[in-house]
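ARCHIVE CARD
CATEGORY: sequence design from structure
SOURCE FIELD: tokenized fold
FIELD CONTENT:
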């Protein structure tokens, strides 16, 4: 690819929430950009993150409008920085997107659309859904999966709570403990027994400890799938 072709790739804006998930998405875009653009090359990328505590305070209070305003604030700052489109490597806060869709300054790639499209492409029929309790209890994934004729199963309520605890008390801080890995593996085995043929890693930190090598079900890595979709749009559009 020529220098002029590299310069025409679009500028990706990342609306960040939790550091580990946002960092994994950013690293994926930069490291895999070379496969499309040439050695050491990747599209221009900007990221803005409010403090995670601001998001958690809103989520704990059930204040999705507050979550949405934080997202919009980041979106506006990224638009001012020259981004061409936006992604958000955080599944949970996508439940607030509906409050600001008509005010977004730029196109937004929805993480659950990306995952659901991949699930359909791979021929899966029933997906296990893992993530924070806020995400798993929400309609973020169900409506995207059902619109594509896909079924899903949520973990049991006590499992949702423990998974959420692991995410919020360990993974977002970059703490990766073997007992937590084993807990995720146990939950995924139960989802397999319940009829799932793949599992959605619906928190952007989960791929840091669970992958196709240590899961009994094929994994749909929401973080990297979103990064791949952003790269494709940036280069091909």
């Amino acid at each position: 690819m020529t220098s002029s072709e590299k310069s025409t790739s679009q500028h990706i804006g990342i609306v960040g929430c939790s550091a580990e998930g946002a960092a994994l998405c950013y690293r994926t875009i930069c490291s895999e950009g070379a496969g499309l653009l040439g050695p050491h090359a990747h599209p221009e990328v900007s990221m803005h993150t409010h403090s995670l505590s601001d998001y958690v305070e809103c989520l704990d209070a059930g204040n999705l409008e507050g979550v949405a305003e934080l997202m919009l604030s980041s979106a506006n700052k990224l638009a001012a920085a020259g981004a061409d489109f936006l992604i958000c490597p955080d599944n949970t806060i996508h439940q607030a997107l509906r409050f600001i869709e008509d005010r977004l300054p730029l196109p937004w790639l929805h993480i659950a659309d990306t995952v659901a499209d991949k699930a359909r492409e791979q021929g899966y029929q029933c997906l296990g859904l893992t993530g924070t309790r806020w995400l798993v209890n929400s309609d973020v994934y169900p409506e995207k999966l059902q619109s594509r004729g896909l079924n899903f199963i949520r973990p049991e309520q006590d499992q949702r709570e423990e998974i959420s605890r692991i995410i919020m008390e360990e993974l977002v801080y970059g703490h990766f403990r073997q007992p937590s890995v084993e807990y995720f593996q146990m939950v995924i085995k139960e989802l397999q027994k319940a009829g799932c043929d793949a599992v959605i890693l619906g928190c952007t930190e989960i791929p840091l400890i669970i992958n196709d090598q240590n899961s009994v079900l094929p994994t749909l890595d929401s973080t990297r799938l979103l990064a791949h979709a952003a790269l494709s749009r940036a280069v091909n559009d």
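CARD ANNOTATION: The longest helix spans residues 64-80. The chain has two domains: 3-110+225-236, 111-221.
SHELF: design records, drawer C
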